[in-house]
């Protein structure tokens, strides 16, 4: 019964987020809005963490299973991925370096 309540709260936040996304004049993922709504509700303690903890842990424990369909779908594009592999890796590495530099610079500014 506890898991049903946990999933109901998570699903309600997702549905409200998707509803808000349809009202926005620009494209924005409803799942992100739902996640922000859940964060707000938990942070303000309008919803206690114990109400969603077990359901969230269950989802996290089985998260790898949720990525199997995505990985299987990518197998249809192996030749396309091989053609752009160098660009993909260089973009990911340059993004990582850029993020590290920006976060390091912000940290230095906050410390002084």
UniProtKB/TrEMBL annotation:
GO molecular function annotations of the record: hydrolase activity
Single GO cellular component term: plasma membrane
Transmembrane segments: 31-52, 59-78, 84-107
Keywords linked to the UniProt accession: Cell membrane, Hydrolase, Membrane, Transmembrane, Transmembrane helix
InterPro entries associated with the record: LrgA/CidA
Subcellular location: Cell membrane
Entry protein name: Murein hydrolase regulator LrgA
Species in which this protein is naturally found: Oceanisphaera psychrotolerans
């Amino acid at each position: 019964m506890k898991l049903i309540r946990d999933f109901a709260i998570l699903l309600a936040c997702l549905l409200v987020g998707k509803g808000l996304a349809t009202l926005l004049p620009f494209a924005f993922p409803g799942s992100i809005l739902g996640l922000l709504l859940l964060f707000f509700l938990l942070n303000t303690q309008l919803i206690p963490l114990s109400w969603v903890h077990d359901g969230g842990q269950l989802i996290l424990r089985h998260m790898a299973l949720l990525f199997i369909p995505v990985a299987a779908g990518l197998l249809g594009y192996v030749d396309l991925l091989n053609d752009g592999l160098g660009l993909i890796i260089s973009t990911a590495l340059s993004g990582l370096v850029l993020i590290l530099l920006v976060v390091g610079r912000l940290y230095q500014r906050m410390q002084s």
